[in-house]
Amino acid sequence: MSTDYVKQFWEGYHRALIENQIPISHRRLYVRHIERLIRFSNGARIAEHPPSFLRYYLTELSNQGYLEPWRYRQHVDALRVLYLFFLKPAWAKIFEWAYWQNTTVSRHFPHKLAPNHSALPTPPSLYICAAQQDLKIHLQGRNYSIKTQQSYQDWLRRLLTFHKPKKPAEIASEDVKSFLAHIAVDRKVSIATQKQAMSAIVYYFRHIQKQDWSELGEFIRTQPRRSKPQALSREEVQQLIRSAEGMHYTLIFALLYGCGLRLMECLRLRIEDFNFESLQIAIKRSKGREDRHLPIPKSFVNLLQSQQERVAALHRADIASGYGYTTLPASDNGTLTSSSQEWQKQFFFPSNRITQCQGVRERVRLHIHPSSVQKYIAYLGKQLSPDKRVSCHMLRHSYATHLLENGEDIRHLRDLLGHASVSTTMMYTQPNEAEEKHIASPIDDGLEETLELASCSQGS
After folding, report:
1. Of 155, 224, 228, 318, which has the fewest Cβ atoms less than 10 A away?
2. What is the CA radius of gyration of the chain?
3. How far apart are CA 330 and CA 347, in angstroms?
4. Is the dihedral of CA 16, 17, 18, 20 positive or negative?
C-alpha cells in the first residue's frame, strides 16, 4: 500500500472526525480503534468489508472481555464515522449502529436480560430497527424524555425478538400476552417493570400499527409485593445531610427530603424554576409530563441563593471562554436554540465539566450526572445506617412518611408528590412491621415459669 494512499486515508478520516464534532482529545483514540480494525483485517481492504464482517469483528471484540462499556461504544462510534461519513459504502446507512452502540456486550458487563452472558445477542433484523426508529420519531414528536424513548424502544425490540420472525403487523394480542407472561414467570421482573413493558408495547401498536390494545384481558401478571416504602428517621436524615461534603450534594439531599423530589426532578432544575419572592419551585415536565409548584423550605433559602450566585459566576466564566451553552427540553434531539446560552436556562446543579453531546455543534454544560449522586448517597448510607440500603428515593419516602406523621392530608400529599392517583400515595399509610399490633403468643400465658424450670433441669 503506497504512502500517498495511507496519507490520504488518514487525512480523510480526520476530516470525518471534525465533521462529526469529535473532540480533539478523543481523535487519537478513534484513530487507534481504526488501526485495530486494520490489523484484524490482515491485509484486506477495509473499504471492501461487507456488513457481516463488521458484525463478526464487533462480536470478536466483545468476547475479549476486558473492554469497558464506554470504550466499546467509542470503538463502535469510530467505525460509524469511518464507514458512514468517509468510506460511505451502500450498506452503511442501514447498518444497525444504534444497536451496537446502545448494547453492553462485554462478558464482564453482560446485558441485564441476555439469556447467554458469554456471547453477544444476535443483531436485530432490519424490520426491528425500522420499528424502533418509527417509535422513536413518534415519541420525539410528543416530547417524551430520552430515557422513556430508550426504554420503549428496548421493550419493543425484546417483544419482536421473542416472537421472531414475526413482523410487527403479524403480532397479535395473544403474542403480547405470552411475552408479558414470559418476563413475569421466567425473568421474574417486578410489577412496575411489567407495567412499563405493557405500556411501551401498547403505545407502539396503538400509534404506529393503529391497533388499540388498551384492554389486553387476562394474562399472567407479576404478583405485587405490598409493603410500606422504607424511610429514614428524622435523626438519620439530619445526619445524612450534615455528613455530605460539597454544597451541591448538601442542597440536593435537602431538596430531595425537604420537597419530596425525585432525583431527576431535582437535577433538571434550572435557575428560572426558583422564585425566591414567593418561595416556590416550579417542577416542570416531571413524571407523567405534569407540572407542579412546591414551597421552598425557609431553612435553606440562603443556601439556595448562594448556589445561584455560584452558578452565575460559573456561567460568566463559561461565556468569557466562548461557551455558556446548555441543552433545553425542546432540544433533546440534538439542536440548540438562541436561548440555550441565557442565564435563566442554566441548570441549578451544573456539571463540573463542559461536554460534547452527539449531534450538538456547540459544547454544553449539563447537570450533575445522577449516578454520582446515587453512588455518594449509598456510600454515606453505609457509614450512617449499615442495616439500611439508603438511596435518593428513600429521602422522598421519608418526606412523605414524616408529613403523614405530622397529620398532613393524604390528598394534599398526593399533589405535593405529583402522583396521578391517590391510591399510589396510600402506600405510605400502610403500617410497617414495627408498627403492627403486637399479638401475645399463647405460650406467654402462664408458661414462663414452666420453661424456666425445664431449662434448669436440662442444664443440670
Report:
1. 224
2. 27
3. 15
4. positive
Residue 17, CA distances (Å) to 12, 82, 89, 408 in order: 9, 8, 17, 57
Look up the pTM and report it: 0.62
Q: What is the DSSP letter of 104?
A: -
For the domain covering 232-431, report its CATH number. Answer: 1.10.443.10
Instruction: Determine the pLDDT at residue 222.
Output: 66
Helix (H, G, I), strand (E, B) or coil at 347: strand
User: Rounded to 10 degrees, what is the CA torsion of 455, 457, 459, 460?
Assistant: 160
What average pLDDT score do residues 405-411 get?
89
Predicted confidence (pLDDT) per residue in 209-240, tens digit: 888 766 666 666 666 666 678 888 999 999 99
The DSSP-derived string for 384-437 is H-TTS---HHHHHHHHHHHHHHTT--HHHHHHHHT-SSHHHHGGGGS--GGGSP
Segment holding 294, helix H or strand E: strand 292-295
In degrees and rounded to multiples of 5, residue 347 shows phi and psi of -70, 140
pLDDT digit string (tens) for 13-37?
Answer: 999 999 888 888 889 999 999 999 9
Segment 323-332, tens digit of pLDDT: 888 888 754 4
CA distances to 33, 117, 219, 258, 381 from 263, in Å = 36, 31, 33, 13, 16
- Quickly state the pLDDT bin for 123 (edges 50, 70, 90): low
The Cβ of residue 149 has, within 10 Å, a number of other Cβ atoms equal to 20
CATH number for region 124-223: 1.10.150.130
Residue 180: name the closest of 160, 202, 157, 198 by CA: 198
Sign of the C-alpha dihedral, residues 312, 315, 319, 320?
positive
Between the two ends of the chain, the Cα-to-Cα distance in Å is: 95
Domain ranges of the chain: 1-120, 124-223, 232-431
- Tell me the DSSP string of 214-268: S---S---PPP---PPP---HHHHHHHHHH--SHHHHHHHHHHHHS---HHHHHT
Q: How far is CA 315 from CA 221, 253, 266, 325, in A?
A: 50, 23, 19, 9
Distances (CA, A) of 142 to 113, 157, 175, 404, 415: 29, 21, 27, 36, 24
Residue with cell 448517597: 377
- Per DSSP, 44 falls in state S
Amino acid letter, residue 68: E
